[in-house]
Amino acid sequence: GRCPACRYGRENICQNMRMFGNDVDGAYAEYVKAPAKDIFVLPPEIPLVEGCIIADAVTTPYHAVKNRAEVRPGDSVVVFGCGGVGLNVVQFARLAGGIVIAVDIVEERLEWAQRLGASITVNPRQIEGSAARKIRQLTGGGADVALEAIGNPATIQEAFSSLHPGGRLVVVGYSDHEVALNAGRIMYREMEIRGSLGCRPVDYPRVIELARIGRIQVVPLVTARFPLENINEGLDALRHSQGIRSVVVME
Questions:
Q1: CA nearest 11: which of 19, 20, 3?
Q2: In what order do the strands lie in the sheet with 120-122?
Q3: CB 91 within 8 Å of CB 116
Q4: How do residues 125-177 score in pLDDT, each as one tens digit?
Q5: Cβ distance 148 to 155 under 8 Å?
Q6: Which end of the chain is more exposed for a tag (fewer CB within 10 A), N or C?
Q7: Buried residues in 26-51 as b, exposed as e (16+ CB within 10 A)
């Protein structure tokens, strides 16, 4: 690319980016044309149907944890939202050596989070007070890192409030609403707030290799398959938060 972001190796925030489903027609079709530079080969150890979720649900969390949150061994890491993206944030935070606290209102997803490496789970509907207060109690003053994988202004605020002084908030979930955060706390406590979008092309081979050697789980996360003609059923399942990841397959 030619824009400043691309020249500095941050192609994921290219000023001229054209994205499937956003800027051009998406890939709900039997065939789709893509630039050769954006194609990566899956090794035979990774089934194609399950491996297809690597392109977003796995690479996005990798970038968020490694490049934006910069999780280090021993860090306390709280993950708000344990859906298809958040569960992989849990996996990568655990792989980086973090002590992971998973937050969600759906018990099934918290059970998944535990299977994938969360040490502690918090269901805000089953505790007294806020999730942020509970996390501060569990961590002795607040987490080192918080990642919000929902895109809800209220949970972004909760994630920020769950941090100790000097903590780092990484916003992974998308929202087009404004979020109010205490500017005085940001300044006096040297808080960090970072956004995280997608993943850099250079990181894809690393993520694929981690999946190939079994350091992260991919296959169990695909909990439903839909043929192309039933795609609306898959979209309904997504809207109602059913399962973890659904995949459209060509039969």
A1: 3
A2: 120-122, 99-103, 76-80, 143-148, 163-171, 192-195
A3: yes
A4: 999 999 999 999 999 999 999 999 999 999 999 999 999 999 999 999 999 99
A5: yes
A6: C
A7: eeeeeeeeeeeeeeeeeeeebeeebb
How, if at all, do strands 143-148 and 222-227 pair?
A: unpaired
Output the six-digit token pair for 13.
Answer: 């925030």
Provide the 3-class DSSP secondary structure of residue 182: coil
Which domains does the chain carry? Answer: 4-55+200-249 (3.90.180.10), 58-195 (3.40.50.720)
Q: What angle (nearest 5°) sits at the alpha carbon of residue 17, between those of residues 54 and 209?
A: 25
Phi and psi at 182, nearest 5°, equal -70, 110
pTM for the whole structure: 0.94
d(CA 78, CA 119): 10
> Which strand (E) or helix (H) includes residue 247?
strand 245-249
Handedness of CA 220, 221, 224, 225 (dihedral sign): negative
